[in-house]
Amino acid sequence: MKIIKSLCFLAVIASSACNQPAKQQQETAKAEGVSADTAKTTAATQIADTAAVVKAYIALKDEFLKSDVAGVKTAASALEARLAGIKGCSETAIVAHQITEAGDIKAQRESFLALSKDVVDLVKGGKFKSAPIYVDFCPMADGGKGGYWLSAAKTIENPYFPEHMKECGSVKEQIN
């Protein structure tokens, strides 16, 4: 229930995109002659879209905890649709699509590493007025290079090694 409440409050996130910071988006809007009202409406849409991305990302991470290839594909498809709705996130949506096409959990997790990096950057670009979102890190992921993921709970549940090292990792940052 706490996770659901956290995600519901994400609608208060400030405008951001996968590869275009909020300030840069505002400058682009001014340069394109967009009115202040239009810019506010766009920002509100962006906030809702970003909140939907976080919710879909957490659902995907939870499917990785189950190591369910079909469930991961379904959740990645939902995340892809959410990412496609955000200006500047088309490349990240492509990575989510790669997860839907992967034939095994290992390949899906490899794509999840890249996806997580982009989504973490997206969320860090927002300003939260909600329960925290945690940036977690596993030093063993990616062949010992390490990998990040987002979580709505402070407890570590490692999506890269849920069978053998579910509690491997640490909270590196709290976003709120």
TrEMBL record:
Residues annotated as signal peptide: 1-17
Superkingdom of the source species: Bacteria
Pfam families: DUF3347 (PF11827)
Domain DUF3347 residues, every copy: 53-127
Keywords carried by this UniProt record: Signal
Protein name according to UniProt: DUF3347 domain-containing protein
Species this protein is from: Mucilaginibacter celer
